């Protein structure tokens, strides 16, 4: 199982605006032993930090987890992904997410429609554009949502010697998961996912989608950002507990993620979290995440024990495990965790 880290944002407790901080994150990722790093699109652009990473590291896989697909046209997305794949010598992975309707229509002022169908067409458009650049064949993509029929020599990049970028799709529900398995190179599992949901809902949808595309499981990558609660000392562990409870409460209030709670018989928890989220009562919401819910969504323990538990829960389900710690965690503790997963 490969182990990855997050990069360039606040998800690991650091800021992403300072180039010196970004450079240190890259160096730290290599010292810790991460195989790759993922850049998020939350409060900053997901692509620009990866350009620095491509320059500073020659070994790390670099990916977006995620870039918001529907905030950009396939042409603009294809261009930046092709550039990063070229600059990184084939190490770039384009991780795409649909986001939810209010963000697409009200934050980005872009059109919204059935997200699974639109994502399937979006990926097909990307592939057509990259194929045109690689082979020189005429670009003639005509879909329901996107039409790309103009590509002149001035605007066509040279063929990338490393091929097209790999594409992974973020999904929670079975429809988007099927799109990922039918149309892309991999699945970016949402952090608000349990091992049971992976076994009973996600992986059956993946297998069905792969059958449609005529591929085997070995040709498809599943990446999962797993919540972890740990710390170098008791104070750090207590802070981690509170931060992860808050993160679970935030996700649990989102209607799009309700199915995960439903599977575990916690539908009423979603209803109450959603109600409280409308009033901004985050403290009460956090308190509703009891120890059973916490232990189901997150791996808890001392740093030396985390690796074995990650392997127990997720070996055979995921190919890449991203250490999801929405709180500060020192490098030595990360080294212990990553080493435990790799040797587990």
Automatic annotation (TrEMBL):
Transmembrane domains' residue ranges: none
UniProt keyword list: Oxidoreductase
The organism's place on the tree of life at top rank: Bacteria
E.C. designation(s): 1.2.-.-
Keyword Amino-acid biosynthesis: no
InterPro entries: F420-G6PD/mer, Lucif-like_OxRdtase_MSMEG_2256, Luciferase-like_dom, Luciferase-like_sf
Start and end residues of each Luciferase-like domain: 12-318
MF annotations from Gene Ontology: oxidoreductase activity, acting on paired donors, with incorporation or reduction of molecular oxygen
Pfam families the record matches: Bac_luciferase
Broad class of enzyme this protein falls into: oxidoreductase
Entry keyword Oxidoreductase: yes
PANTHER family with a match to the protein in the record: CONSERVED HYPOTHETICAL ALANINE AND PROLINE-RICH PROTEIN, PTHR43244
Listed NCBIfam families: F420_MSMEG_2256
Protein name as catalogued: Luciferase family protein
């Amino acid at each position: 199982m490969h182990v990855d880290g997050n990069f360039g944002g606040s998800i690991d407790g650091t800021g992403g605006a300072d180039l010196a901080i970004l450079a240190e994150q890259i160096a730290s990722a290599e010292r810790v032993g991460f195989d790759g790093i993922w850049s998020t699109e939350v409060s900053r652009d997901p692509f620009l930090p990866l350009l620095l990473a491509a320059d500073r590291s020659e070994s790390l896989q670099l990916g977006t987890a995620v870039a918001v697909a529907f905030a950009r046209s396939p042409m603009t997305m294809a261009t930046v992904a092709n550039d990063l794949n070229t600059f990184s010598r084939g190490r770039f992975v384009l991780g795409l997410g649909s986001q939810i309707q209010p963000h697409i229509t009200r934050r980005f002022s872009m059109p919204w429609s059935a997200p699974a169908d639109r994502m399937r067409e979006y990926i097909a458009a990307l592939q057509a554009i990259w194929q045109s650049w690689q082979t020189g064949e005429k670009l003639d993509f005509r879909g329901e949502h996107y039409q790309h029929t103009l590509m002149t020599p001035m605007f066509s990049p040279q063929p990338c010697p490393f091929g097209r970028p790999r594409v992974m799709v973020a999904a929670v529900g079975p429809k988007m998961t099927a799109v990922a398995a039918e149309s892309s190179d991999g699945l970016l599992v949402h952090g608000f996912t349990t091992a049971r949901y992976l076994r009973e809902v996600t992986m059956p949808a993946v297998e069905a989608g792969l059958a449609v595309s005529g591929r085997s499981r070995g040709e498809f990558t599943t990446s999962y950002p797993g919540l972890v609660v740990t710390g170098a000392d008791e104070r750090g562990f207590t802070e981690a507990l509170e931060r992860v409870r808050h993160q679970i409460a935030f996700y649990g209030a989102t209607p799009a993620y309700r199915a995960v709670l439903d599977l575990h018989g916690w539908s009423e928890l979603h209803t109450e979290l959603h109600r409280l989220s409308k009033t901004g009562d985050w403290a009460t919401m956090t308190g509703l995440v009891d120890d059973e819910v916490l232990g189901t969504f997150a791996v808890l323990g001392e740093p030396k024990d985390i690796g074995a538990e990650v392997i127990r829960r997720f070996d055979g389900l995921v190919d890449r495990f991203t250490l999801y710690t929405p709180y500060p965690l020192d490098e030595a503790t990360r080294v212990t965790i990553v080493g435990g997963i790799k040797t587990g």
